[in-house]
Amino acid sequence: IVVPPQLQREDKPINDWFPHDTIHLTLTGVLAKSSNIGTVRATDKISANGLYDYLRLFGLGERTDIGVRGETQGILPAKGAWTSQMKDRIAFGQTLAVNGVQMAAAINTIANGGVRVSPSLIQGSATTEDGQVVGTDTTTERRVVSEEAARQTALMMERVLDPEDGVAPGAAVPGYRVAGKTGTAQATGEECGCYDGTFDVSFGGFAPADDPRFTVYVVVKNPADGGGGSVAGPAFAKVMSYALKRYAVPPTGTRPSRLPVEW
To answer: Are residues 131 and 186 in the same domain?
Structure first.
């Protein structure tokens, strides 16, 4: 993927978070370096309808129905409302909104070999005050991407934690292969109902990357400084490290991904 310093698209140019000349990235490199421009260029290869359908399959735009009051379905514009500009923005995470459980379930889909498992808070079953039955007894599954596509995506996500080529080396768990991705979201203010200049940063991932046991998603609201890799990444590493040790998950002992980030 050829990534220019700035991408001119319709009404507004698209920029990356880091300054650069024209660079040549693989799709792995686009993920590892969190390039908005590279993401948009990659998404040019899929139709707007195709992207919308995949986002819905991953669970965006619909409530998870885990039984928690006040859960929102997030924001995913209706397929008929999409424009080319909207598709570009949605590709790198603008013009849509998700809740934390939606995002964790989407990441977990890749960890689970491409099969989305509906999330639950209760082991077994329980009935909410409004009569909704929730819990693992009601779990549903659906295939979103092929097992091979999920495996390749996990290999690419490992490079996000690379100390030289990735943006989140602080999310690494010593001795384990970890796959993950950073996130940055513009936040809205309660008073104005508009973007108020604050940001939420996140890191979500799973380990061991080649034989996943746990998926963890960390969100930090309006940090004083830093992004998903430097703020949420270390918090992710602490939580994941505890989970792996608590449940005595041994390292797989395999070599981590070395997929190229440039060409």
So the answer is: no
CA-CA distance, 238 to 250, in Å (whole number)? 17
Q: Do 31 and 156 form a contact (C-beta atoms < 8 A)?
A: yes
Q: What is the mean pLDDT of each run of 10 residues along the chain (263 residues)?
A: 94 93 98 98 96 98 93 94 94 93 98 98 94 95 98 98 97 97 89 86 98 98 92 98 98 95 97
Phi, psi of 28 (to 5 degrees): -60, -45
Q: Alpha-carbon distance 206 to 106, whole Å? A: 12
Distance CA 157, CA 153 (A): 6
Query: What residue type is assigned to position 236 of the chain?
Result: F
Q: Which residues contact 172 (CB under 8 A, 6 or more apart)?
A: 161, 163, 178, 237
Give the structural domain span for 198.
156-247
Residue at 254 is within a domain: no
Q: What is the DSSP letter of 169?
A: G
Report the domain count for the chain: 2
pTM of the model: 0.95
Q: Alpha-carbon distance 248 to 257, whole Å?
A: 23
The CATH number given to whatever domain includes residue 130 is 3.40.710.10
Query: What type of residue is 156?
Result: M
* CATH code for position 199: 3.30.450.330
